[in-house]
Amino acid sequence: MTKPKTPEKKSPLVIGLAIVGVLMVITFIVNNYEKFPTAQSIFGGNESPKGQAQGSLQLAVETCRSQIKKQLGAKLLASNLDEYSTRYNDTSKQYLVFIDLVIKGVEKEKYYYECQVSAMNQKIVKAQLTSPPGQFQKININ
Q1: How confident is the model over 20-79, as pLDDT tens digits?
Q2: Rounded to two decimals, what is the model's pTM?
């Protein structure tokens, strides 16, 4: 006569590892909450966190760089995004983008381009080339 099979007991080690694995996944999601839209919808907080927009900062920077190229043309040697100054204004729903420039003929002077871009439609609201006093005449920009 055969004995009825008794269910095998799960090893406490396997159960412990499973619990640790689940806790690690939960900890990861909680620490990276903003990156998981599904977690946001489950736990609340569907709106964009303060200081963030629906538009893209990268698109705003590309819009500004395009405007700089139109304005300076071949005189533009280099442009570098000033990541410390560039920011999003939640009140006006605009990106304020600052780009440091190197301009042919006046490479040692510090020029920068200030550009406000709407986060809603990625259009330039305001843009200006800023330089040390009297430098606009050196590069023939009016």
Answers
A1: 888 888 888 777 766 655 555 555 554 544 444 456 888 899 999 999 999 889 999 999
A2: 0.56
Amino acid at residue number 133? P
Which domains occur in the chain, in start order? 12-43 (no CATH), 57-139 (3.10.450)
**What distance in Å separates the CA atoms of residue 12 and residue 75, rounded to the nearest whole number?**
71
Q: Give 47's DSSP letter.
A: S
Distance (Å, rounded) from C-alpha 16 to C-alpha 41? 30
Query: Strand 124-130 to strand 94-103: parallel, antiparallel, or no bridges (unpaired)?
Result: unpaired
For the record, the structure tokens of 101 come out as 């420039």
> From CA 23, how far away is CA 11, in angstroms rounded?
19
- Residue 122 is given by DSSP the state -
Distances (CA, A) of 19 to 14, 27, 31, 141: 9, 12, 18, 66
> Which residue reads 């760089």 in tokens?
65
